[in-house]
Each structure stands twice: as structure tokens, then as C-alpha cells.
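Course exercise 7: structure representation. Students receive a sequence record and must write out the corresponding structure in C-alpha cell form. The form below is the worked example handed out in class, using Outer membrane receptor proteins, mostly Fe transport (789 residues). Read each field label carefully; the graders check that inputs and outputs are placed in the correct fields and that the protein name is recorded exactly as given.

STUDENT ID: A-19
EXERCISE PROTEIN: Outer membrane receptor proteins, mostly Fe transport
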Amino acid sequence: MNKTLFFLCLPMMMLAQKQKIAGTVMNTENEKLSAVNIVLYNSKNEFIKELKTDGSGVFILEGIDEQRVKLVVNNNGYLLFEKNLDLENPEALQIILRKETREIEDVVMTKRKPVVKRKVDRLEFNVENSNISSLNAWEILKKTPNVTANNNVLTVKGSTGILVTINDKKVMLTGDELKNLLENTQGDEVKSIEVITNPPAKYEASGSAVLNIVMKKNKIEGYRGIVSSKYIQTQYAKAVFGLSQYYKKDKLSVMASYYKGMGTYFREGTDYVRYPESETTWVSTMNRKDKNTNQNTLNFNVEYELDSLTNLSLNYSGYFSPKSYGIYDVPTLIYDNRDIVESHYRTLNDHASSSINNSVSFQIDRKFNKKSSLTWINYFTGNNTDKYQNVNTYLNFAGQSPREEHFMTRNDADVKLYSTQLDYQWKGEKLEVESGVKYSFVKTNSKLDFSDNENGLMQFRPAKSSDFNYKEHNFALYSSLSYNIGQWNFKGGLRAEMTDLEGIVSEPYNHNKNNYWNFFPTFYAQYTTENKHEFGLSYGKRISRPFYSWLNPAKSYYNLFSYFQGDPELKATIIHNLNLSYSWKDWHVDLYYRKELYPAMEISYQVPETNNVVYNFTNIEKGQAFGTSLYKSLQIKPWWNLVLSENLEHNENYFNGVDGILHQNKVWNWMSDISTSFTLDKNNDWKMEIGHRYFSSGIQGPFRISSNWSAYFVMNRKFFNKKLEAALIVNDIFKSTRQKVVTKYANQDNYFLDYTDTQGFTLSLKYSFGNQSVKNAKTIRKTSEQDRL
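STUDENT ANSWER:
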């Protein structure tokens, strides 16, 4: 094994001889053209470098390691010029540009529609210069084939636990924080979205699938900035203000951004719990309202080209939310078997929380020659959350004197993680080899203090408090091989990951220590006919490790009768994915099968002896699903596009109930996304879109989740030579996203109604200044562990 790693990492030092070639750019009237942009690409159409002509229209090609390159000249007012060059046989270059003529009378000029391309190990959704590139990255992601977003939860072919990367670099956010990041990422900086159902061995083994957002490279020198503002009106108002700045000069690229958010967040819910033992029904109304007027997001990227073969990158990202607070007023009515209220109580939950997240990473990219390269990255993050609640309960039970109960909790959680990773790549004409090694270390501490009232004084209760310490070491090795022969493409790989963990709980004392290896094979095959019909087969094994908070067994009380509890012995979920694909022109069809061993999820169960409802993270026995997905884009008119994205799946979950019996929960699930867009002017500055999303009923362990649907409307308009952009978005027009989640088996009989306040409208303004040709600096690679914070 040591010899294999030695030869994989051995650099190939045979560099191509560098040539120096002079050229001139002029027009058909023999006028020398100055400041003309000239871009060079290699034989694989990958960007090499960019230069400009001087005042005499002259340019010099030098310091290029490639033998064969493509030269592209794209100058405003002139037709595109392309030429393939053999630098081993240099020739004098005299480029003549012809002026562009365009008839626009009775013609609507539109951008092209997004291009969907099937590769051997992924589906590429190319949106560069397309008719959806004016949207933000979040909206583009929701329009990607095989991707759906239900209540802001991303799924790929019905599977959750998605790993999101930017330029193959891990994004360390989930849920609303991830959504906010992507909403503040400009769509015209996105080149493509890659949907990787069975990720290759170089990717982290965690997560069921990968969504990789490929950004355009920062090619042109200059400075630009973007000032943006957004007003959101749902039940209550919210706002976001932001400033992004980009700069590139010679070998230096810099990006810095700051966003400040504020608002009031609302969620409606009603809990119904029926206890057959006492023949009572408990109904709680929970209208939760939280304020957060100081949400701060900072990002800073700097990239420096040390020489033509070496790049250095530094990244900092931070999120600061000093205080989110609210008071929940939760009345509960208790009905007897005649539906008459026999008892009631009222809970007032006064709570506040704060959150701080800091991440720093440093990356070195080194090319040995045109075939081989090495990347080394180090990453550190620190995450701290502090949650406080003061809960008063006023009880009025039948046959008892009215009384008041009072308790307070404070939960401080601190997570620190470090990771280092080394990746090597060698790429030939038909053969490609990738290999790498990674080590990461995570340390978490979660302290819960519980106090309640005794004789008018708050007393600390050690039995209900806890100190949870957790350490985890991960070591990984991987290697993969790709081979192209004629109409066949093959790729295979193997990743090995070792996990060494230790968790210690103070009260009640629990010590969990474990060490294990996992192996994750991947295989891909693709065949393309002469008529461009593409057939594919892929298999991949994945792992989904639990969030660190899921491992804490301390009881976190919501009220006297309800609490959340984790499990320090929670198992990681093993996932097997098998996929068959077919593509031809704009038709893309997938058949897939997914098997999950010991899926980890949140479930609830009622305890009749204490009238408690417990929310618990646990493993169920297994889950499996099979289904088919379809994506089709129809260009009805040059200005009118229709997109169909459909997924039909049969899903099964097997879980051990509180009665000790293995239960099966299964459902046919249909997800449908239909949208139509219009370009309303000749300059492609005014666009409109109408869409409809439908989700039929689903399952999660013992839960059965009702269907929901939503309709939306988008209007986008650019002004002042595209520098000012205004948008109107109306979401959940008919307020149809309410869901009912039911548990009903054995003596478990409960459900809750949930609405996440999605109906509303958004008004946004974005003003761009400076050189608008500048693109975003390369985002730093991150690791998978922070996704479990």
C-alpha cells in the first residue's frame, strides 16, 4: 500500500518547452485595435490565461506549458474569432476582426436555455448565459433536474441529507443559513450545477448525494461591487442588506462581503395527543414568534498566484447572531371521552439564544505539469450556541387545586474541529487517476443546567442537568481510476474511512467508546451511441453520520410534559445507491434504488404514565426506496420556455415501535415541479415566471406526512444598462403548504398541524458598480464534519 501511495504522489516533472509568439489584432479597415481581450484555452477547453493588446494592437504569447491551445477573441462590436494553435510549430499571428451586424426588427433576442449534460458520474446543469442566470443561486438550485426543495429542505430523488459544495468545496451550513448564503450568491456568477447521485471516491463519504455549484472563474482584472437590499413580507416583516466587493489585479484576487438580516419569524402549529388509557385528548396551540434583529454574515476570500504553477488561497467566514428571542404562549385543553374540556393548563416560554460561527481555511494548489497536480488544505472552525429559557406553567386539572410550576434551563454548546487533506490528480488522454488522504478531529462540549422552583427559590437540579463531552477522530484514504475507450466511459473508486469516537455523559453517567473502519466503493459506466443516446449505470455506498447535538442524551424540556432527547450510542446510517440513466436531447430519465441501514431521524412517542410526549433522535431498522425521475425542457417559442420535473417513488421505513413490534410504513410519493417563463423584451432585461410545485404524502419512520403544494410568481426587470435590477417574488400564493404529521399505531395516537409562514412577497433591489466582467474569487474547500454541528 505504501508503494502504491508513493507512485500516485510522484510528480511528473517533464514540463513542456515554453514558446514566445507575437501577434497583432486589427479590423477589416487595417486599424490596429488596442485593449482587446484575448483568452487561451487548452485542448480540454479549460481556461489557461488572458491578456490584452497594447496601444499598437500587439500581444505576446509566452510562459505557456500547453502544446496545443485555442485562442479566442471576443470584442464588443466584432464577430467572435477562434483559432487553434500548435505552440511547438509557432507561426506569426495576424488576427482580423470583422464587425458584427444584427437585425433586430421583428426579432426577440433571448439568451439560450440551460443545457443539461450527462457525464459518467454526474448530471451537469449548465446555466451560464442562460435565461435563468439572472436568478440567485438558491432559485437556480431549485430548478436543477432531480432536485426539489420542500419547506427549504433539499432532496435529490426523494433523498435528504444532501452535501452542498461550491467548486467542490464543502459548504458548512444547513437549513435557513444555507438558503440565505445561496440567496445572496448572484446567479450570473454561476456556471453550472452538478447533481452527483453517487459521488466519486474523492468526495466525503457522508451524505446521500452531492450538489456541486460551479462558479465562473475570476478572469478579468478590475474592481466591482454590488449593493443589495431585500424586503420580505409574510406574517411579519423581514429585511436583508448587503455589500459585496470583488477585486483582481495581476496575480491577486480578493472577494469580501457582508450581509445584515433582521426580522420577526412566525410558525403556526397545533398538537393533538390522544391517550387511550385515560380516554383523554390533549390539544395544544403553538403560535411561535421569534425576533432576530441582528444577523451578521461575513465572507472573505483571497487567492494569490505565487507562480504559473502554484496558487495560495485563504478564506474566512463568520456568522454572528447575538440574540434571538421570543415568548411562546401555549394554551392546552384536555378533553374527556365526551369531547368536554375537563382540564387545562397554560405554558409561557420566555427564551433567548445566541450563535457564533467562525471558520478559517488555507489551501495550496500546485501543478507539476499539464497532467498532474496536488492540493493541500487545512481547515478550522469553532461554533458556539447558547440557549436560555424561563418556563412558567399554570395548571388547572380536574380534582386538583390550581398551581404554578416554574423551571429554567441554560444550554451552552461548543464545537471545535480541525481537518487537513491532501489530493493528487493525474490526467492523461484516456486515463485519469485521483488519490488522497484526510484527517479530521472534532471536540464538542454541551452543558445543560436545569433549575426549578422550591419554596419560592430556584434550585439547581443535578439529576436533570448534564455535561456531555464528545471527541471524534476520522482518517480517510481514497483512490479512483477513470478510463475512456471509444463510446464507453468507465470510472471506479474506493474510499476507506476510520472513525474513532468517545462520548462521556455526566448524569446519568454514560461512557461510549467505539472504533471502526468503513469501505465505500463506487462504480460508473456510460455508453453513448452514434445518435447521441446516452445510457448510464452507477453504484455508490455512502454514510450519514449523526449531528453532534443528536448524540447528547440530556433531556431538553419544552414544557412540563414535553422534552427532546438525543442518544449517545446513535449509529451512523449506511446508504446504498443504484442508478440507471438515459438521456437524449432534452429528455433525461433515471431509474433508481436506495437502501438505508439504521436510518437516524427524529421521531416522537407518548408516555401515558406521565402524559409526556418525547421527541427523540434514534435509529430505525431500515429504509428503502425505488423510483423514476423525468426532466424535460420545452422551448415553445424563442421567448417562451416550459420545464417539467417529475419524480415518482415508492418509499418504505421499518421501525421498532414502543410495543416492541417491527412496523412497516410505506407510501407512493409523487413530486412535481412545473414552471413556465417568458422574456418580455428584446434586450432580455424583463422576465416573468409562473410555477407550481406539488408533493404528495410522505413518511418518516412512524410519521405519515400529508401532501402539500404551492404556486409562485416571479417578475424581474433590469434598468440603466443592467446595473440596477429589481425583482418581485410572490410565494405560496394560495397558502397551501400546511402539513399534517400523524403517528398512529399500538397505543400511539397523535398528530400535529404545521405551517412555516411561507405565504408572502419579496421586493429586492440590486445595484452593480465598477467593472462588471469581474467574477467571484475561488471559494475555499471545506470539510464534512461541520455539516453535523
